[in-house]
Structures
1.
Amino acid sequence: MEPEKVRAPNIRDVARLAGVSYQTVSRVLNEHASIRESTKQRVLDAIDEIGYRPNQAARALVTSRSRTIGVLTAQNADYGPTTSVTAIEHAARDAGYRITITSIASNEYPSIKAALDQLQMQAVEAIVVIAPQVRVLEAIRELDITVPYITLQNADLGGDRSMSVDQVAGGRLATQHLIDLGHTEIMHLSGPQDWIEAEARMQGYLDALSDGDLRTRAPILGDWSAHFGYYAGLELLRFRDFTAMFAGNDQMALGFIHACWDSGLSVPGDMSVVGFDDIPEAAHFYPPLTTVRQNFPEIGRRAVSLLLTELQGGTATHDQIMPELVVRRSTTAPPRRS
Amino acid sequence: MEPEKVRAPNIRDVARLAGVSYQTVSRVLNEHASIRESTKQRVLDAIDEIGYRPNQAARALVTSRSRTIGVLTAQNADYGPTTSVTAIEHAARDAGYRITITSIASNEYPSIKAALDQLQMQAVEAIVVIAPQVRVLEAIRELDITVPYITLQNADLGGDRSMSVDQVAGGRLATQHLIDLGHTEIMHLSGPQDWIEAEARMQGYLDALSDGDLRTRAPILGDWSAHFGYYAGLELLRFRDFTAMFAGNDQMALGFIHACWDSGLSVPGDMSVVGFDDIPEAAHFYPPLTTVRQNFPEIGRRAVSLLLTELQGGTATHDQIMPELVVRRSTTAPPRRS
DNA sequence: GACCGGAATGTGAACGTACACAAGCAACGA
DNA sequence: TCGTTGCTTGTGTACGTTCACATTCCGGTC
């Protein structure tokens, strides 16, 4: 009950115990080349005995390298972003980096600025931006971040600082699949207007429709949630003037399917539905969902890899990952007109 | 193309510009009481003009306070933990703290130790543990962490260092609901053996059954995934000797429902199903899922609040949050025996 | 008018590490 | 034998900040 505020052991304590100079200890810690094996061992033993841990703050101060990668996220807990964060954490750790996370409280400029300020104050060496709103990207460009950064959003809009799955291609893939099945009246339930991915998927949808000379319909702007998919579905299904739905993500697809059943429509008999993301649950929806798979872990890994390359002075090519159509049972040919 | 390695402005640069001593600047930054309003303003202006940012590393070095809370997570991207992390981040930020995240690569001791080492090297002032495996908790106790920490797992097993939803009560709630509907043959699809929450929910299930003098069945140990729920379901349903299923989480419930349909059983007509967590999608399953809701954000907030209290020398009471049953359409009275 | 006390500001450390440079030591060839 | 070389180790200093202490300033009081 009297911890007596004991100072943590430092490099000099280790040196004293090992009978060497503090600099020798430093060399051992940094794996300097020319250190006699015996002294190195002696130092390591001393470190072990005394329970020494390098002080990151002191290191960061003198090297002005924090060995930290900042991650800027939105406040949501979606499967995709979260999976990417985990991958980022792993990749960073393997490279000897740590990650620190900041989420933006709202979509407003001050909030975005505050988050970036916080990351910069922590002297992060690089930043991964997962907040997928257009406004965030604008803010970032405006604030001229001095460290390498990368956004996990679509390349066209993110400029050359993005690393992502090609969302436009994904939107095309989904829509083309429906067209190939024979659908001509295809609806799109999009994400919010401000979202880069939503826009890109919508673009893919529009591209595919126009390539197929099909009627373009104004997409519904949703909020990614199953709830929205459900209520929008109830509304849309009052007029059954379409036979297929491309939902901007799996959650909205789920909600929409729910609405279909509630409206007495069978999926896929009366209505084909395609989602986006391929969350693990999608294979067990009723019916199992046809969707577009994104390789989220891969995105995270590649993002870190690119940033590390830049940190080492290299030039990184910011390429895109192609999404993949996963056909399950929620899509089929349109019902024959009677 | 020639950045010329310019040093970031420091406290002395600000002082020079404002015509005061560096200590005065420091006082302004730390909101010291006796600073004349006019000088304070002058310093703030200088800070603004020169674009000064306090160097966290230097601060941490001299104060030996990192103002960082470490979060130890498992490698998965589940809805619950993720939601809590976001809440933690918010709560921490509001209190002037940052968070850094480390995930354990595997469930083995070395991996757990490495993760905790990393957090300690970063000199985190407190730790939130979300990795819910029993072994992680054991490792933590063994490694005698010197900073306050808290686990978001069940209190009984986590000792007095936990802050969680009462999982046993949740398990009881779910099971009792089925009993109240008239079910007597109730199956439980549990989480993995090593998981604290899985064990607690199972305990709640067993308690409720024994209170109701009902036959106890050996729970199936799953892995939380919808896939497992599906395949286990297909297997279990070969013998239709039960009329209700309490699944350890919503994902497994979803997979199990999928198996029901595939086996020609109707939910809830032939089989009632209860989940756990109330993920946002649960309301849109087919049928909408009866489940036990956990207030994940609240857990995260309270955890941070407790840690901060301890950091300020106070004594914190580690209480529990009660879960809540959400009745939807996946449960009903058992089919009448013919 | 000198003195006093509190408010406001300034000066010298110290935190723990890495870098630049210097110095010791052995082995080697001339 | 001695200078040279390369490996190994040691000494001073700087990083940017806060803390403890010292000093100055100012208005009020006797």
Note: Residues 7-8, 10-12, 22-23, 26, 29-30, 54-55, 57-63 of chain B lie near DNA strand D (CB under 10 Å from a C1').
2.
Amino acid sequence: MVEPELGARKVAVLRAVVEEYVRTGEPVGSETIAERAGLGVSSATIRNELAALEELGYLTHPHTSAGRIPTDAGYRKFVDSLPPGGRLRDKQRRAIAGFFAETMLDLEEVLKGTTQLLSRVTQYAGLAVPPTGADEVVLRTELLEVGNALMFLVIGQQGRVDRAMVDRPDDVDSEELGSLDRTLTAAFRGKSVVDARAEALKRASTAKGIERDLLVAAAETFGVLQAGGATHHVLIGGVANLADEAAHWRRETVRRLFEALEHESEMLELLRDVTIDQDVNVTIGAEHPQTGDWEASIVSAPFRAGTTALGTVGVVGPTAMDYVSVMASVRAVAKRLSELATELDA
Amino acid sequence: MVEPELGARKVAVLRAVVEEYVRTGEPVGSETIAERAGLGVSSATIRNELAALEELGYLTHPHTSAGRIPTDAGYRKFVDSLPPGGRLRDKQRRAIAGFFAETMLDLEEVLKGTTQLLSRVTQYAGLAVPPTGADEVVLRTELLEVGNALMFLVIGQQGRVDRAMVDRPDDVDSEELGSLDRTLTAAFRGKSVVDARAEALKRASTAKGIERDLLVAAAETFGVLQAGGATHHVLIGGVANLADEAAHWRRETVRRLFEALEHESEMLELLRDVTIDQDVNVTIGAEHPQTGDWEASIVSAPFRAGTTALGTVGVVGPTAMDYVSVMASVRAVAKRLSELATELDA
DNA sequence: CGCTAGCACTCGCCCGGGTAGACTGCTAAC
DNA sequence: GTTAGCAGTCTACCCGGGCGAGTGCTAGCG
């Protein structure tokens, strides 16, 4: 199916509907648009346009005598029709500038703050995915006795750390442990986490006893480093703002959303699919198979160091969100983060 | 003010009101109680008791012709009147037993799972506070170059890890770094984190330049280890269940709750105050100054290794919660955790 | 041919009144 | 002290009518 090209006025009308509906939360009628959109045509003409837009699937009616509200497709069209760029409100600009004024060195910390920032600026919930560590290199490994268990610790070149615990059998003395430690260090130091993980798994398949357990544990830690960051893989901030918003939603929708937010793997998949190499990306309502029918949209943008993509920041909110403002905020934050990361990397 | 001793029948009536209200969510009338509580008295007698209980502040009316609902004080009285012990439903027992059947070594991981478990079993949200590391000892410290920054890494005897990043000035060569690393190691290894922190701060006050920065960063990491665990200090699971429940609440209440859940320090303070040395503890509604008027209750219990308290697990839900079942679940989970921790510690 | 004015029509929302029902509180009897 | 009965109160629910917003259509105009 060929995407039909809309006339300029249809686009303007659609835009007016989206903006008005987002602003007020009420279905919007032809009169309102005629008055406010400044198109210089009467409400009757608008009505024709509205009927046409409805025919095309961009708008609906809750009922006969109500105004129009955008469909998911309508929001999509609206977003796609936006001029690139987009302006920040002054307050938002100041908030963003202020936040990044303090130098922060630990990226994970910065990102945590970033989710809060995004939430504060947009009134929805902020998201961030720390860099994947695909190109992370094993700087150091350590095998330590901790209580009556063993801890395998790995430190990546970019500062990521993870650890795994392994049961300590009674028949292993500290001499043997020392030797194991040296073996492990020799095996993995300097390798990329991807290679290290493969190597660990390969060795584990032939090893046995405590050595096997350790190799399995090691493989797991390399996997974690590769996935990016020690514990939490998707950072979420400002859920309270979202909960506020969600008060109007269908019950099932709210549950669905919170479940998704809690299951990092799900969010991760969503954000990964969504953010490939574009600037700002928008997923509206049920567009992504992952989202089911959840009435929420995600606005996200990647940040980079130099030219390599590091991670993603974004915002989750209702489909009826202020896309223009949110997109501008997300873009600005991603840009600042990229600058920061590039600088750190230099 | 002397706490008045209620008659046995008043207690029974109060209990009936709480149980019925929690079950149905509807205000409960005298008739219902007369039928169901099996007290062998007529509804008129119950009415007298209800009036008396209302007079005492344990019940209210939403309006004249409605049944009674418990006040916070009513829930409190109810909880206090519960026999110690309390039974688990079979399904809950199985779920809890099943969860702890798999041995898990990393306590942080266990606790994360525990919050999910508690949520699943109770239908509210699960909480866990990892052990505070007050008696944690510095096993090892490392100073590493990471990109163009420095990372100070500390490993505790109990397996906790934290790190801090410090800007690397241009005029520091790697020889100087090596010497700094040795100094730091010598200064802190083997010290308790509390002492280490104090020492770091003391030295920082006289040092300057990069050394000062490092000492400040080190103090921070020791503080984190003392507070318990690397990044997140309060683990929360099953928020979706709670969001479901919260659909009926006042808007402001929901916002308040989610804000509290997001701000770890707030939750932490709440849970710390609440869980001193008791078995299962219940905070109802606005009983705690921290909670404002939030219509939510927290059921929590400490877990121990041997006799020393380690951390806390609990559940957040509406004041109208099934206290009997939740308390039994929290108690059972805390007990299992204690067994697990004691075993690990041995 | 596109635009507009006007108008009939539709339909959800709001309002008031009336009613049924759920409880209470009281009183009088047991 | 307990109970039955009854009057009183107040809410939730239902119902119908009127209002008004907004549409869709048609006829006329530039």
Note: Residues 27, 29-31, 43-44, 47-48, 50-51, 61, 64-67 of chain A lie near DNA strand D (CB under 10 Å from a C1').
